[in-house]
Design goal:
The chain is mostly helical and 65 residues long. The chain has 2 helices and no strands. Helix 1 packs antiparallel against helix 2.
Length: 65
């Protein structure tokens, strides 16, 4: 019973992190801004960092089963 929330949370973090990372990479490849009104390099760096942290949190949650 206690592993259910960990599986759900880990899955959500992994899906969000993977989606954000894929979106950031596709925007960066086309040389388009990741966030409007922000420096292209800074927004890609912040989005990439957040995506990596989300993937790490998801992996950590899934190892706590």
């Amino acid at each position: 019973m206690e592993s259910g929330p960990a599986i759900f949370t880990g899955t959500v973090f992994c899906l969000f992190g993977a989606g954000l990372l894929a979106w950031t990479v596709s925007r960066a490849r086309h040389r388009r801004p990741v966030a409007l009104g922000v420096n292209r390099v800074a927004s890609a760096t912040v989005a990439g960092t957040v995506a990596t942290v989300c993937l790490a949190l998801g992996a950590w949650c899934l190892t706590r089963l």
